[in-house]
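[Automated response] Your request has been received and processed.

Submitted sequence:
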Amino acid sequence: MRPPPHGATTERFALTSALRERSYLRLLASRAIGAAVLWIDFTLIFESLAFQWTVDTVVIGLAMMLYGVPGVLAGPWVGAVVDRHCPWSMLRWSYVLRATAALALWLAPTLPIFLVCIALKGLANLLPGPAEQLLFRRLLNNEALVANTSRVALIDQGAKLFAPLFAAMCVACRLPGFAISASLSMTGVILLSRRPSVNYESASGAGGLNGSNGSRPVWAVFCAVLRNHPRLRRVFVVTLCQAFVLGFYDALLALFLKARGYSDGTFGNIVGCTAAGAILGSLVFKTAVQHLSPRTLLATSSILFGATVLTPAVMVYADVVIPPSTMLSLWVVNGFAYGVGSMLVMLTFQQHCPREVLGTVTSTARSTQILLMIVAPLLGGALSNITSLEFVFFCAGATAVGLGIFAAAVPVSQDKPHR
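Generated structure:
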């Protein structure tokens, strides 16, 4: 049998590249829709609890638990399911689940049913993450993944800024916000309705770390990947500790500002500054990756992040007044540094994790992070009751700076060959 002429090979390659480009643009648009739906629903849930159902703080806490705990308990197994099925189909079905959850929240006749629907919404939010990670990895090479990480972070931060404003406008104008959210989800279904011609089927049949038929426990798969990939392990552990540090002090930030005599609007301004810093980080991330090694980038982000938390505590101990402009500037850097760390861990997972278990590993990592984010505020609050607010900030900042120094000083061993 004769090989195809060179022209035919070139045309076939160009066709495949064009199909991948269109598929990538659809996937990126899907990410934007999904991020908007996530933040619209999150805002509407707690707006409804406060103003429609007029609940107390205990019910608010219960709702938050119902929204977040499914990610801790079911996340790793959802990722394993995505690894064994077509991620494009799984992403499409996630929009169906999100639309169903939004309509259920809109039509819930009683508070208990509304709370059950919140748990359903939390479960529906689990599918998109691992499916998108798999699709981005199969569509893009390592160089393109860097730019993609910046774009995804920019989309997420934009949705985090503007979607809650849209949800608040819906509440103010008495518009059916959950129905609008469901409509957006159905737009996602339509966007993904046609499966691309490029092969996106599950890679689980290739064997690898999952073993035959994906029989290994998800935590065993996760630990095996971290054990065999030291660079991935280093980035994950340092950024996981950063997430713990964030949860340790973040819930106390408003109280810290109040104790220092700042005005009521300062906390909201700091939230905006953090988002602005994260957006700035997403814009420079590609350039930073091109000019800095992952080890240097990880150490720099951790040290900068810790310094922004440590500085206010040191200034309080030194009895130095912290001007509002200084606090706002610090939290721009805070959002920048934490955002760079988050993008780095996403990129490292996509580049170094075996494809056949990428959904399992990223979902398990996310569940671990959520668990620490739940525990950390409790520990931070307990420590502040025993000592002081500024001591919590001092401990958090010093820990992050120490992590950065560790990342810079201790070399990473080479990855073990994947069998």
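Summary generated for your ticket: The chain has two domains: 8-193, 218-409. Residues 11-15 have pLDDT under 50 and may be disordered.
If you did not submit this request, please reply to this message.
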